[in-house]
Amino acid sequence: MNFSFKIKRLGSSNKRCQFYTIVKDDDELTEAIKFLQNVRNQKSDDFNRLKKRYNTIRNKTGAIFEFFKDEGVQKSLVKALHAGAKRDGYLKVNSLRWYCIRLSKQCVIFGNGGVKHVGKTQQDSHLKEKEADMRWVDACIEAAQRNGDLHVVDSGNLYGIMNFNEETIEKYGLQ
Questions:
Q1: For the chain, what is the domain count?
Q2: CB 111 within 8 A of CB 63
Q3: Average pLDDT, the chain
Q4: How far apart are CA 61 and CA 78, in angstroms?
Q5: Distance between CA 49 and CA 74 in Å, rounded?
Q6: pLDDT given for residue 13 in this prediction
Q7: Which range of residues forms the domain containing residue 119?
Q8: What CA–CA distance (Å, rounded) separates 69 from 12?
Q9: Scanning 7, 60, 107, 140, which has its CA 20 to 30 A from the CA of 169?
Q10: What tens digit of pLDDT does each residue of 55-78 get?
Q11: Which residues contact 30 (CB under 8 A, 6 or more apart)?
């Protein structure tokens, strides 16, 4: 699913990790705000723990690998921020997925996500769409970085192109 989008800072400058999100096409709300305001997500047992982990990343640890789950494709920057494992017998259960792109320990771009009640993401149309959205964003960001149009500095701040419109997407040969 291809779409135009803008990258926007999520909140203010943070101590350990800078957060960004995307605004699709001409939407009023960012994908991260849609995720946070979704009542179904808020009712999840994992929601408050996920918010706590978000704050830990922002203020204490940065975006360490242990806080993210690979989603499907190996060596992809698309991840799911998870709330931390809770035990149910010997199984680790975590139903809330917040899809993102972990560019570095100091920079994460958040998308949308939701509650997973199926065995595989592909079995849930909402989650499948939100993961695919972030794969598209990842492809656009990779192209911009290869072209020298987008940079992540050591502080985690992004510099360069933040508006991926039709013209920009075409420039990178992405359709």
A1: 1
A2: no
A3: 90
A4: 20
A5: 26
A6: 79
A7: 5-171
A8: 25
A9: 107
A10: 999 999 999 999 998 886 767 899
A11: 8, 10, 21, 22, 23
Q: Would you mind telling me the total number of residues written for the chain in this entry?
A: 175
Which residues lie below 8 Å from residue 24, measured CB to CB, with a gap of 6+? 3, 4, 5, 31, 133
- Tokens found for residue 171: 């420039």
Q: Amino acid identity, residue 24? A: K
Its pTM stands at 0.92
* Percent of all residues in the chain with a pLDDT value above 70, rounded to a whole number: 90
What the block records as the tokens of 153 is 């500095």
Amino acid present at 114: G
